[in-house]
Specification:
The protein is mainly beta. It has one helix spanning 3-6, and strands spanning 10-15, 23-29, 32-40, 52-59, 63-68. 25% of the residues are buried.
C-alpha cells in the first residue's frame, strides 16, 4: 500500500499506545480492517484501547504514526 493511500485512514486502538512504545491499531484498508504497529504523533501522548485514530505517517510494511480524532 502506498504512503499517500494510508495517510488519513481512520481506525481504532487495539493495544495501548504509550510514550516511546509501540501500540497496535486496526486501520480500515482494502475493504476491511488490518492490524498495524503504531506510535503516537505526539511523543508524550498515551492513547488508550478503543480510541479512534487517524494515520498521519506510514512506514511500510506495517507501522503507522497516529493521532486521536
Amino acid at each position: 500500500m502506498a504512503d499517500h493511500q494510508m495517510i488519513g485512514k481512520m481506525g481504532r486502538v487495539t493495544g495501548t499506545i504509550t510514550p516511546g512504545h509501540l501500540g497496535e491499531v486496526m486501520v480500515e484498508v482494502r475493504g476491511g480492517s488490518e492490524a498495524f504497529h503504531a506510535y503516537a504523533a505526539d511523543g508524550d501522548d498515551a492513547i488508550p484501547i478503543g480510541s479512534r485514530i487517524v494515520v498521519v505517517e506510514y512506514f511500510p510494511p506495517r507501522t503507522v504514526v497516529v493521532t486521536r480524532m
